[in-house]
Amino acid sequence: MNWRPTAGAATLRLRAAMLRSARAFFEERGLLEVETPILSAAAVSDPQIESLSTQIAGLAQRSYLATSPEYAMKRLLAAGSGDIYQICKVFRDEERGRWHNPEFTMIEWYRLGFDDAALMSEVEALIGHLLAPLRRVGPAERLSYQAAMQRHAGVDVFTAGEQELLEAAARHDIRCEAELDRDAKLDLLMGLVVGPRLGRENPCFVFDYPASQAALARLKPGLVAARFELYIDGLELANGFHELAQSQEQRARFSRDLSLRRARGQVQPPLDENLLAALEQGLPDCAGVALGFDRLVAIALGADRLADAMAFSIDNA
User: Fold this and answer.
1) What is the pTM assigned to this prediction?
2) Which residues on neighbouring strands pair with residue 236, listed in sequence order?
């Protein structure tokens, strides 16, 4: 048994200082810190994310550990909370490796009246605020998803056919099964070719994702999603949306997710009817973002694995 922590005392002090600094950042901007349940009767439908669940005595249905506080925070927004943020533990199954741990710390916040472009600027400000004492952080680059894929993978995502995507993967020595759907092929290229090349000099935002990858983001003219991701040192660090507020459209997207999960033989989690009811009641115009805090600590340290940035990884928890 290895009882020792994976992070040393200096790293623990750095984490604590960065958490204090993050709270000070949000306090200065007037955001309310909130707490929402870790356990819920519903789970995320995203085919790329698997939830962990447990059976609680006395409850007929299983309870699911939060993969993000997003759904509950949107219920608070619909109830009139105003600008809010949360720093919490989240859980995802099948995520274990150099840069993944099934339990990790997330910073998530929502800003009323912001769109995705405005929120990118605030994310950049937070990153500068937290990293400036530890490393130089230059102005962030902003690349559309189309431009990032063209530059680093050599494909135009809005015109490339299935065969062209397979050829692009082969050029980069990536095994890509022909039967994968188009978005799965794009995810392979983004995850293995494009993402690792982003943010090597300065932070890099990728924005205007294909409409098929909108998730909980609204759509812009030109059939692109009001969604962005932040990369630093080749690591994806944050995922943000100009939030979709239409209940029926969100239900339709959840249903498409479940159909895809069914086709892939994945677990069919129950939908969050409370979230859909809150959207029906009325979500204020807002943008929200989730940021992986452990990865940010690793970047601050110059570490080459996530375990070095947390007290205990899953392997010695």
Assistant:
1) 0.95
2) 231
